[in-house]
């Protein structure tokens, strides 16, 4: 049967669409791409594979993603609300943009970028809090063909500098300060510090938000809002090639410095648009709110591009879930009559631990669909979300995906396929997951356990690591040649539904933030008293995983954990940012090592998890005696 619409409406349709996308991907994605507006059509739907890694989608086509997010809706939805911005301060009036207003605002911002000398292909770095100009600025880049690279406002000056240097950004857009609950973050002064070691940046635009005292560097720094105000709202979209870069987003991996994943224009657009439409199943007058920060991939694909590509109303929130109190999320749901609510398990668990009346006193009857993203959701949190927030009448979509995948990969479809507690469930059409054992053999049949890989390219996948295609190849495609390795473990149940069990590499997921243990170790090792360290994740009630650091001190250094912790925190704050601070620091005299000198992290993970009943075979260790010493030190 030919597919007439790419909107999946029944479970049977889901299976037939998946099958079609599997058997004739070129036809399937050509059909899905018809939902978008192209300047020139493609000559080939897809080329390249996981061996050559020259993956291209919609080659030959030209387009502009903002023409699809904005211009395309002007005739039919010009006066519909596109974006609702809610301030950190509940007493400050929200800002609403209709599609017409958003279009004009993005055009004005685009002209500001052009006036500052930004051209197609230039990289623009954003280091902002969740102000409206983060969203309009990202779109302005896309409109003129500049490549945006958003750095989360919680990273340090050094981390920001590393990213600016890596992508050789020509401009940084920041705020004077950012509001974050009762605190303010000195974004401009952090930017100033970062820029001391970045020589590619010729201009800095500052969105004044708090009115805090900052300094402007003559010739380099400009106040953003007055420039936007006086700019023309006429800016035709730049014609982009399908595979032109759209953005770079940095994320942490097992080793080395953060990787700048590069996403390209056409494939990402089709994926963000298609997945948003099918996963959330919005209707025309629904209001959608994703609580993520635009500094992460979720905010790119599912605050900005996905909803706007679908002509939906998207809410953007500046603040945090616990300010002014832990009822803020529910207050906002009530205030804007949110129908679709998408958040992270860590937020659910944190709010679950608060006074239940903060939820119950709000009217949540507008809600139709709930979503979860960023980390495995435990059953208890899932049940609470379902009962207390969804009142047992809202399907929950547990969406598994990654910065690398560009958009959602494995999930139920709201109200179409079943939600199963703690299970992401089914792969979307175009997603071909396999489970692979330690030897690289595909585990067939159901149920099954293994490392989660993808067998075939999908439109939204990152095409490379900026400036380092070799690293891209090695990181994702060398563990299991010919397959994309996600870094996650998973279980497939008897019905073929996936449950993601978490990372199987040296990446930890703290409150939904992806942190490379090697990065934290490198930071700790900068401390003059430290010889070596090993960082592992351990189960944490609220954060999902906490950070546990085992630290070997220089001979003669007799520091206790209490003395060492604040010093390491300060160092990590400086090198990475507060999100990477360890929860537990344990000074040790040695680390369990194999005869080849490799740290046996399995043992350290078990000790951190207080799971020391069965530590497995430690006879191959160079220093088996250290295990008891570490256990004692950990109070076990
Ligand atoms: O371990 C998986 C976890 O988050 C990782 C990707 O992190 P990041 O690139 O920062 O993107 C987060 C937002 C998409 C994955 O490798 N993860 C993400 N979603 C889920 C998840 N783990 C379990 N269930 C999920 N729904």
Assign the CATH topology of the domain at 508-633. GMP Synthetase, Chain A, domain 3
Fourth-tier CATH superfamily name of the domain at 508-633 = ANL, C-terminal domain
Count of beta strands: 30
Main sheet overview: 7 strands, mixed
- CATH C-level label of the domain at 508-633: Alpha Beta
- How much is the average pLDDT? 97
Give the strand line-up of the largest sheet: 5-4-17-16-18-19-20
The shape, in one word, is globular
Low-confidence stretches: none
CA(first)-CA(last) distance:
62 Å
Gyration radius (Cα, Å) is 24 Å
Helical element count? 20
CATH architecture of the domain at 508-633: 2-Layer Sandwich
Describe this structure in words.
The strands form nine sheets. The chain has a seven-stranded mixed beta sheet, with helices on both faces. It has a five-stranded parallel beta sheet with strand order 7-6-8-11-12, with helices on both faces. The mean pLDDT is 97. The relative contact order is 0.10. Helix 11 links the parallel strand 16 (287-290) and strand 17 (313-317). The protein has a domain at 508-633: GMP Synthetase, Chain A, domain 3. It starts with 10 loop residues before the first helix and ends with a helix. It is an alpha/beta fold and 636 residues long. It binds adenosine-5'-monophosphate-propyl ester. Adenosine-5'-monophosphate-propyl ester (PRX) is lined by residues 251, 297-298, 372-376, 398-403, 424, 486-488, 500, 502-503, 509, 514.
